[in-house]
Specification:
Rossmann fold; binds adenosine-5'-triphosphate; elongated; 9 helices; binds magnesium ion; five-stranded mixed β-barrel; six-stranded mixed β-sheet; 362 residues; alpha+beta
Length: 362
């Protein structure tokens, strides 16, 4: 397939008018790596991708590909493929012509183009669709054509901007698997943009969580999921229970203990937290367990205010004496109004610095 890249590294700032949309956004991507930019709407994901593709110029910064500076090159000379969120197929061209476009632009001979387009259609599992127009295809089929069109030039790097966001839930899962298969089979290097954490976790070798044009945390899916470093990442990754606390002690193994009002909570420290420091304990509903144990360290007591049946499990909302609500996801039904004990397993509790640069408890 395409010539492999060793590494791409960049450091980019982008301003629109007076507004800084990317603030010294820096990263190194290794060959064959699948890296995802994950973050809320407006955090600068598409802007970053468009800068890498060369569709817009940076306000400051550099892009290096294997020792060559490429930020001065026009898009077609960078050798990158791009899949856009809205497919961006040419409506008046057939599937064949859409896929062939990039090859014609590069002056490929007609006979070779036909062979290569057929190969791409096989790859995305759309053989026989050559003569259809985009309007005659389903959303998923259009998305496959968009991927074929990006891959046909044997890109050194494939950039994908929320390629699955217009598809229904079932097709989204299918196409996710498809993208994973293409990445593995072709040894592609991919940068993928999404605001869907499940998509990011399932596809990526590395996830870059962004907020307002900055990197909040970059790491493997497991690191981002299990060891968020700040409240923003924790909130984005599904931690729903937060307890403000004052650190009272800890162990060299990274365990931190704190007092949150009447509660004593232990968890894994996201950073060294000395006694007296203000912290926040964060835990996911899935990790909270109903228990018969009496209240004590990491065991709370409260009254069930709400239950919601999810098909396999139940979501509970439990009110503590302090008035705080705790969300739990449990396997067995619990009656509304009943009093329950809740265990927050210390190995699943993350203790973060309470001040994360403008975060606060989400
Ligand atoms: N051409 C432009 N002119 C002015 N502002 C822009 C322009 N393009 C983007 N922006 C602004 O830059 C910020 C980042 O936009 P961007 O499209 O990169 O966000 P995003 O993370 O891709 O969001 P989404 O998930 O909604 O697609 C937004 O505040 C947006 O309004
Ligand atoms: Mg976008």
């Amino acid at each position: 397939m395409a010539e492999q890249i060793g590494s791409l590294h960049f450091r980019l700032t982008k301003r629109f008018g007076g507004k800084t949309v990317l603030d010294d956004f820096a990263l190194e991507v290794r060959g064959r790596e699948f890296v995802t930019f994950l973050g809320p709407s407006g955090c600068g994901k598409s802007t970053a991708l468009n800068l890498l593709a060369g569709l817009i110029p940076p306000s400051a910064g550099e892009i290096w590909l294997d020792g060559t500076r490429i930020d001065g090159l026009p898009p077609e000379r960078r050798g990158f493929g791009m899949v856009f969120q809205n497919y961006a197929l040419f409506p008046h061209l057939t599937v064949f012509q859409n896929i062939a476009f990039g090859l014609e632009l590069r002056g490929w001979p007609r006979a070779e183009i036909a062979g290569r387009v057929r190969q791409m259609l096989d790859l995305v599992q759309l053989p026989g669709f050559e003569d259809r127009y985009p309007g005659q295809l389903s959303g998923g089929q259009q998305q496959r054509v968009a991927i074929a069109r990006a891959l046909v030039i044997q890109p050194r790097l494939l950039l994908l901007d929320e390629p699955l966001s217009n598809l229904d839930a079932k097709l989204r899962l299918e196409m996710r698997t498809e993208i994973k298969r293409l990445h593995a089979d072709l040894g592609l290097t991919c940068i993928y943009v999404t605001h869907d954490q499940a998509e990011a976790l399932s596809l990526s070798d590395r996830v870059v969580v962004m907020r307002e044009g900055r990197v909040m945390q970059a790491g493997t899916p497991a690191e981002i999921h299990d060891r968020p470093q700040n409240l923003f990442v924790a909130d984005f990754m599904g931690y729903r229970n937060f307890f403000s606390l004052t650190v009272t002690g800890g162990d060299p193994d990274g365990t931190v203990v704190g007092r949150a009002g009447p509660l004593t909570l232990a968890g894994r420290g996201a950073a060294p937290l000395p006694p007296g420091a203000a912290g926040v304990a964060a835990v996911r509903p899935e990790d909270v367990a109903v228990t018969g144990e009496p209240p004590g360290p990491n065991v709370l007591r409260g009254r069930v205010r709400l239950t919601e049946y999810l098909g396999r499990e139940y979501d509970l909302e439990v009110i503590l004496d302090s008035g705080q609500t705790v969300k739990a996801r449990v396997a067995q039904p619990v009656a509304v109004g009943s009093t329950v004990g809740l265990r927050l397993p210390a190995e699943r509790v993350v203790i973060l610095l309470s001040e994360d640069g403008g975060g606060g408890i989400p």
